[in-house]
Write a structure and sequence with these properties.
It is built from seven helices and eight strands, in the order ααβααβββαβααβββ. With about 260 residues, it is an alpha+beta fold. A hairpin with a 2-residue loop joins strand 2 and strand 3. The N terminus is likely disordered.
Length: about 260
């Protein structure tokens, strides 16, 4: 798959999750992530730009973490995740009752069914490890999904997690919601004992969130991406010496 391409677009085409990189200056936020909060619109904008070039595939999708939510293997909770509910935004785990709203958020953010259907396929296939929603006044306005993948090496396999997709309703983009979802999702993955997260997304945005292209340089993926292909170690040093090829869950094959 072609790598992620970026170009500037008219302001009206770049609101927003995630899955963004617009012309706005980096913002500083609280919660211990000053370099990441406030940049969700940058991240999703990148995805929309990729769409505008006709590459509405996994390179764009993954850049959203692509933006998405899942639920199958998540322990659902009713309380907001501590440290990630500021102002009027509540970030929490997906529940079965949220599924239609999650589909709608992804459909609206991507202006297509494919990413919304991907979320359902990953959930139904049991690949989801973390699926979070962002809600304001009880209304779901954003979603992020992390699913299992495997790194195939010459000496065996290494388990990891893929961030993809992530989505925020166009009407609620550029408000820091995507950044909150990324940070809450990574925190949830760490608490579940996952050690590696990979993403194909906008370099500036994800570097601010703690991802590194250098960490992913020895790991190949079927979608390319160059500097947009990044990884995060949830356990320091866990990627040292690992070389191989990632194998995404079957539902991602639709984007090849």
């Amino acid at each position: 798959m072609a790598g992620l391409a970026v170009r500037h677009q008219p302001r009206g085409e770049r609101d927003l999750h995630a899955h963004s990189i617009r012309n706005a200056e980096p913002a500083t936020g609280g919660g211990g992530y000053p370099d990441c909060l406030g940049h969700d619109h940058l991240y999703y904008g990148c995805y929309l730009e990729a769409l505008s070039l006709g590459r509405r595939g996994t390179s764009a999708l993954l850049s959203l973490g692509v933006d998405c939510d899942h639920a199958a293997t998540v322990d659902h909770v009713d309380e907001p995740i501590k440290g990630f509910c500021t102002m009027s935004v509540e970030v929490r785990h997906e529940t079965p009752e949220d599924r239609q709203s999650i589909w709608t958020v992804n459909r609206s953010a991507f202006d297509a069914d494919a990413e919304a259907d991907l979320v359902d396929a990953l959930r139904d296939g049991g690949f989801v490890v973390v699926s979070l929603v962002a809600a304001i006044g009880g209304k779901i306005v954003g979603h992020i999904l992390f699913s299992r993948l495997t790194i195939i090496t010459s000496v065996g396999t290494v388990e990891a997690v893929s961030l993809a997709p992530m989505a925020v309703l166009p009407s609620h983009q550029r408000q820091g919601i995507g950044s909150k979802l990324v940070e809450a999702g990574v925190d949830a993955c760490r608490k579940q004992g996952h050690r590696i997260v990979v993403v194909l997304g906008h370099p500036d945005f994800y570097r601010r969130c703690g991802f590194s292209a250098d960490l992913a340089s020895s790991i190949e993926n079927p979608f390319g991406g160059g500097e947009a292909w990044m990884a995060m170690e949830l356990v320091p040093g866990v990627l040292e010496g690992i070389e191989g090829q990632v194998e995404y869950p079957a539902p991602f094959n639709a984007f090849e």
